[in-house]
């Protein structure tokens, strides 16, 4: 049973309900049991949030959290407390061959909520990160084994929230025409959304988008890659992207190490392509670089002119709705007590895109407290570094060309 907590006198900003006011929040048994300007503190452990911002626990819809099972993985239990992210959506770190280990060794023991998308490839991302040459998980299309996905569905179907495909040359080579329809079929079999990553062609984005239907997700929407950019050579939104928007495909940022350009973002936003979710695509090779954590990415959108309410919406209720999880990303009586408390800093800082281009962010968010299911998630030190560097010159050169996540 969780502790009875009272978060007192904070500015509660909950885009789902439209609340933006000074309120007390009472928590018991992992649920929110009181929302009022003043709640009697008797029987509660009081947390003074005067001058601070209280928001729903953040939902990062694109992460890689299979630490120990893949070289890309970061430990959500270490990064979550410092960032306010209570729900981590792992995007395809594990495939059918490795899902059991991910579930039992990482997802179940975590103090946070980790929601997995399974990789179309049987091997998932076990090969990604430190090989001296890139060997994509679908360079051999036979790794897209639908029989094995059916097997995993029989045991873990209630846990798996989506299917993930990296549709770029470093992941599937020239196999796009084969693996794209297999990805569509896999999502249909599992009865879950399909998330497709776009990057350097092949395949080109116009070949990818027809396989996404309403409720599916396109990620890395502001990447500058050749053949995978949402903009044409005139910096106009491609007709295929407009068609995808019209039929209800969801648009995810997926910042990553090489997948976000301020120039592309500015032009695409002016063309009407707004994100449905702001996410990190955080992994071991970018956590100490351009990504860091979700509040750092949120600051980049504040630098683009988004309001604080907008960036909170795009990291709480909006990604939760994409996941079909109306119980997450909002603050409501009887609901999950997932909350984050931030200090809002108005000292301008320089932030950079994946190409190294800088902008000034007028506002940043500094996490003071993270609660998941009513539990305060304390900082954790497991004695290992989360960040990694690429292990060889050859691997590094390949990724410097943009052939990376």
Automatic annotation (TrEMBL):
It comes from the Bacteria. Transmembrane segments: none annotated. Residues 394-405 have a biased composition (Basic and acidic residues). Pfam families: Amidohydro_1. Residues 386-405 are annotated as: Disordered. Residues 265-347 form the Amidohydrolase-related domain. InterPro entries: Amidohydro-rel (IPR006680), Deacetylase_Atu3266-like (IPR020043), Metal-dep_hydrolase_composite (IPR011059), Metal_Hydrolase (IPR032466). Gene3D superfamilies: Metal-dependent hydrolases, Urease, subunit C, domain 1. NCBIfam families: PRK09237.1. This is Amidohydrolase/deacetylase family metallohydrolase.
